Amino acid sequence: MGFQDSTEVMTYIGGIFEKAYEDPTLADKLRAAGIVLKFDFKDPDVVIVIDMANGTVTEGVGDLDPDAEMTMSSDVGNAYWQGKVNLPLAMAKGKIKVGGNVAAMLKVAPLSKQLFGTYVERLKADGRDDLLVA
Hints:
alpha+beta, single chain, 5-stranded mixed β-sheet
């Protein structure tokens, strides 16, 4: 079925970063990366910006100047956070487009694996089995 609207994308995908900042060890690693990462999701459309140094998650760019950005469908983003998307392969196939300081972004990518289980648990807890990827 997919996300119904941009609010759901913000709630679930943006929410996974909010959850990351609740884990002191993970939060320290994200803050140490110090980058501003912009996610530009399509269908439904929403821009989520993660300011890792300051531990903030916002909708829209505002005054921030992203160091790196990723563009993908919301469905690909959902599958990624469930551990179902190989990032380098998705980039090579054009399912995920990247720009800016890609090297810095790729250094942070391994940290995301620690959140896959948390993301799936949140979907299940909210009764969103329709978003689970087989």
